[in-house]
Design goal:
The protein is an alpha+beta fold. The chain has five helices and ten strands; from the N terminus they run βαβββααββββααββ. It has an eight-stranded mixed beta sheet with strand order 5-3-2-10-9-8-7-6, with helices on one face. A two-stranded antiparallel ribbon has the order 1-4. A hairpin with a 6-residue loop joins strand 7 and strand 8. The protein is elongated and about 65 Å long. Its EC number is 1.7.1.13.
């Protein structure tokens, strides 16, 4: 059974945790999205975006019916409309609870993951189990123009929407940066990532946009909320007709998280994974 807490008070993140010996869906720790969305003016049931949180787990294993270990890489997709995200360490502990559990088939493993994760998130979660040499895991590059070679001076390492300025020209373009860094709100550990912004609307000042993204360097928040923060700030400041914000965060503890948020009709590049993930 999945617990549904309202705070991080009892979350396993930042605490010493024994690795489980038995399968236990109760290890999953849901966190309501609403508390972090409210300060951004985002109302549940009236989201200004569509999107998903895409997770990859590289430490997935179970036993087949004869006790032989099977290993895989798992891809999970949680809808942004789910009322809960799932705290990452609890997810890792849950996956480790499968290690000594026998399953009759891979299909049974997938069915178990779908059931437990969907219950925790409060919405349907999709699950794919990939082979460790699957071609879908091959590294690729972010599309569009990289901002990282801009020679700018930076002194502000907290996000400030004031840096997001526009001109009169209307453009449709894709920009990205590998300089995204935020920090875990519980442990303070750094979360490194790359971010892609695709939009149609008044042209964003490149230097201002890069300063804004670098501003997350000392910001403490979950990956999913950082992306929603970026989306909300760009929409409010630049007022584009279309907007997609995608972050590809570097793996930590065997898990990587890649949230994306977009105006309806836009979708992220498919099967996109970066070398440092």
């Amino acid at each position: 059974m999945v617990h549904r807490p309202d705070t991080l008070e009892h979350a396993p993140l930042g605490r010493d945790s024994a690795y489980p010996e038995q399968y236990d869906a109760g290890l999953l720790y849901p966190i309501p999205r609403a508390a972090n969305r409210a300060p951004l003016g985002i109302e549940e049931g009236a989201l200004p975006f569509v999107g998903e949180d895409e997770w990859h787990a590289f430490e997935v294993s179970w036993l087949n019916g004869r006790g032989k270990p099977i290993v895989a890489v798992a891809r999970f997709r949680l809808p942004a409309s789910s009322p809960h995200l799932i705290e990452s360490k609890s997810w890792k502990l849950y996956l480790n609870s499968l290690n000594q559990t026998r399953f009759a088939s891979q299909t049974k493993v997938e069915e178990t993951l779908v059931r437990d994760l969907s219950s925790a998130a409060g919405a349907s979660v999709s699950v794919e189990l990939l082979g460790v040499d699957d071609s879908e895991l091959a590294p690729q590059r972010l599309p569009g123009e990289c901002l990282d070679d801009l020679d700018i001076e930076v002194s502000d390492y907290t996000p400030s929407a004031a840096h997001l300025t526009t001109g009169d020209e209307v453009v449709e373009e894709t920009l990205h940066s590998h300089l995204l860094k935020s920090n875990c709100p519980v442990t303070g550990q750094p979360d490194w990532g790359s971010v892609l912004i695709r939009y149609k609307g008044p042209k964003l000042d490149r230097e201002g946009l890069l300063r804004y993204l670098i501003g997350y360097r000392q910001h403490q928040d979950f990956h999913e909320h950082c992306v929603e923060h970026i989306f909300t700030d760009v929409m409010q400041q630049a007022k584009p007709e279309e907007l997609l914000v995608l972050a590809r965060y570097v793996r930590r503890g065997g898990l990587d998280i890649s949230p994306w948020r977009a105006t309806p009709g836009l979708t992220p590049p498919s099967l996109l994974r970066l070398a440092r993930q």
